[in-house]
Amino acid sequence: MLKDITLGQYFPGDTFIHRLDPRTKLIMSLEYIVLLFVARDYFSYGLLFAYLVLIIAVSKVRLKIILNGMKPILILVVLTALLNLFYTPGNTVVSFWVLRITDAGIKNAFLMVIRIMMLIAGTFLLTYTTSPIDLTDGLEKLLNPLKKFKAPVHELSMMMSIALRFIPTLIEETDKIMSAQKARGADFETGSIIQRAKALLPLLVPLFVSAFRRADELAVAMESRCYHGGQGRTKMKQLILRPQDYLTLALGVLLAAGTVMLAVLGL
Amino acid sequence: MEINMSDIIKIENLTYAYVTEEGKNAVALDHINLSIKEGSFVAVLGHNGSGKSTLAKHMNAILLPEGGKVYVAGMDTSDENLVIEIRRQVGMVFQNPDNQMVANVVEEDVAFGPENLGIDPNEIRRRVDDALRQVGMYEYRTHAPHLLSGGQKQRIAIAGIIAMRPRCIVLDEPTAMLDPMGREEVISTIHELNRKNGITVVLITHHMKETIDADRLLVMKDGRIVADGAPCEVFKNVRELKEVGLDVPDTTELIFQLNEEGFNLPLEALTVEECASAIYAVLS
C-alpha cells in the first residue's frame, strides 16, 4: 500500500527539457510562476499558455500524467471558481435567492482556474523532468552566492539529498513494522479516523527509533569517508550551462518581456 | 619511537572503556598490542561484545584511544590534524549497507569519498569507473541503490572506499546482514582487492568460514586477543577455541572428532579438499 506513493515524481527521459541544466529549469519555473501573477487578461494568459503547451510537447510528458497530478487540488480549484463566480461585483447575468453571477465574475473565475491549473502544471513539469539529485545540485549552485552571508547552503542541500535517499528505505521499514504489528493483531484499516490515527502510534515510535539509529550510523560512515563539511569539496558531476541553456534563458527573457508588455497594455 | 614501515597499522597498549547505561565502566579493549603488515589479509574473529568492532573503529580514528597509541602509516590517530589523511589511508565498510549510502544513484555514492577529498572532477570520474569495475558493479552505475541486493550494495560500499585509493580497508562484519550468496560475493571481492591491488584487509567477522583464507587470524574475547596466527594454526587448538565460545570450521571439527576416536589426522587440513585427501590417505 505504501509502495504506491510516488515520490519525487521524476519521469526519466532524454528530451531537450530533460537535458537542460537544472539551474535553467529552476530559473524558468520561477519566472513562469511570477509571470502567471503578472498576467492580466486573455492575451497575456494566452502567451503563457502557449509556452506551457510548448514545453509539455517538447518534454514528452503525457498529458494524462499532468492532469492526474492536478487531482489533489481539485477542491481548491472548485472553491476558488465558486468564490470568484459569486463575489465579484459587476453586471448581473443570472441571479437567484441571495446569489448572483456577474459577467466579471465569470471571467475572473475562468482566469483564476486557468491560473491555478497552469501554475500546477508548470511546477510539476520541473519535478517530472528533473531528477531529485539534479534539483538539489542545481539549488545548491543557484544559492551559492548566499554562502557569503553565512547561509548554510551546502548543509541544506546535503540534508535534502540524504532525505530523498532515505525515503525508500524508510518506506520499506514502515512496511516491515506494519506487517510485524499486524501479525500481532494490530488493526490499521478499520475504525474511525481517530482510532486509525491512534493505531499509527505503535508504528511511528519504532520507526523514529530506527531512523535515529540509522542517522547515527550514517554519520559515522560519512565521517569515515572523509566528510568534513562543504569546505574544499569538489563534485564529480559539474553543472555546465550549454548553448541550449542560453537559448532557453533567452526565450525566457522574450517571454517575460512579452507578458509584461501585454499586461501593461491591459490585455 | 621506532615505526616499522612495513606495518600499516600499529597498536600499542590500547585500552578503551564504555560507560554502560547503568553508569558502569565496561572495558571494551584491554591493553591490546598489535601490528598489521601492509598487504596482508587479517581476519578478526570474536563473539558479540568481544571488542572487535571497537578495535576496528580505532583503526581510522572514529574512536580515539583512552590509553595507549594507534598509528596508521606512522601517523598518530590522536593528532586531530591528521584525521582526514588517516581516514583516506584506512577506509571502513560497515555492517548495514543501507546506512552507509549517501546518494540515490550508485555512481554518485561511490564519488562521495573522492569529492570530500577535493579531487578534480575528471579524476573522480576515472576513479569511480575504476572502482565500480573492480567490484563488478559497473553496469549498475546509474541504478538506485535501494533496488539492489544486499551483496551488491555492500560491493558498492567497498567501491566507495577504494575510490579514495586507500592502503587498507577495515570491514566491520560486512556480511552479517547478507544471504549466503551475498556473503560469497563480498568475500571474494575483498580477496581479489587484496591479491591484485595489494590493499591491506582487516576483516572483522563471526563467521569461521570467512577466515579460512586469511593470512592471519586473530581471536578476541573480553577485549583481549586470545589467539593470533595462521588460520590453520589457530584452529588446531580446538579445545581452547571452544572454551572461548567459538566454533571451529566443520572440517576441523570432523578431524578433531576422528582424532578423539583414535585417528591421527592433521588438524591443519582446513579446506574440504585438504580434509578429504587427508582422510583418504589414512583410509587407504
Largest interface: A-B, 28 and 38 residues
Give the biggest sheet of chain A: 2 strands, antiparallel
CATH second-level architecture of chain B: 3-Layer(aba) Sandwich
Could you say what the CATH topology of chain B is called?
Rossmann fold
Order of helices and strands of chain A: HHHHHEEHHHHHH
Strand order of the largest sheet of chain B: 6-7-8-3-9-10
Q: How many strand units of chain B? A: 10
The Rg value of chain B, from CA coordinates, equals 20 Å
> Largest beta sheet of chain B, briefly?
6 strands, mixed
Describe this structure in words.
The complex is a heterodimer of chains A (267) and B (284). Chain A is flat. Chain A has a two-stranded antiparallel sheet. In chain A, 69% of the residues lie in helices and 3% in strands. By secondary structure, chain A is mainly alpha-helical. By secondary structure, chain B is α/β, with parallel strands linked by helices. Chain B has a single domain (7-248), classed as 3-Layer(aba) Sandwich (Rossmann fold), CATH 3.40.50.300. In chain B, 37% of the residues lie in helices and 24% in strands. Chain B has helices at 52-58, 83-89, 106-116, 121-134, 150-162, 180-197, 231-236, 238-244, 250-260, 272-283; strands at residues 7-19, 25-37, 41-46, 67-72, 75-76, 90-93, 168-172, 200-205, 216-221, 224-229. In chain B, α3 (106-116) packs across α4 (121-134). The longest helix of chain B has 18 residues, at 180-197.
